[in-house]
Amino acid sequence: MVVYVLRSLHDHLRYVGMTDDVERRLREHNAGKCAATRMRRPLVMTYVENCSSRQEARKRERYLKSAAGRRYLDRVETPIWKAKQKEGCSSAFLRP
């Protein structure tokens, strides 16, 4: 399982989720199949963490959605996002 962070090129907000197929899930988000991100397309992948089990991935996803997890992402994911913006990120699939 994988925990991932998407950024919207529309409003620059984050979306945290988990999946077993990151590329398929990003395609679904960008195709508008996810109500939570439909109006925020296009989205790019900015952070990925591999987990050994679904339970571990769910626990990590919940942490990244908490205040402490958002602070962690501010330190780790935000610099990646800012660098991608400077590069003029238009790719549909970006990894750190």
Structural commentary:
The protein has 96 residues and is of the alpha+beta class. The chain has a single domain (2-86), classed as GIY-YIG endonuclease (3-Layer(aba) Sandwich). It is 43% helix and 22% strand. It contains three helices and three strands; from the N terminus they run ββαβαα. The protein has a three-stranded antiparallel sheet, with helices on both faces. Strand 1 (2-8) and strand 2 form a beta hairpin. Helix 2 (54-65) packs across helix 3 (67-86). The longest helix has 20 residues, at 67-86. It is globular.
Condensed summary:
The chain has 96 residues and is an alpha+beta fold. The protein has helices at residues 22-30, 54-65, 67-86, and strands spanning 2-8, 14-19, 43-50. Strand 1 and strand 2 (14-19) form a beta hairpin.
What is the element layout, followed by pairings?
Blueprint: E1 2-8, E2 14-19, H1 22-30, E3 43-50, H2 54-65, H3 67-86
Antiparallel strand pairs: 1-2, 1-3
Helix pairs in contact: 2-3
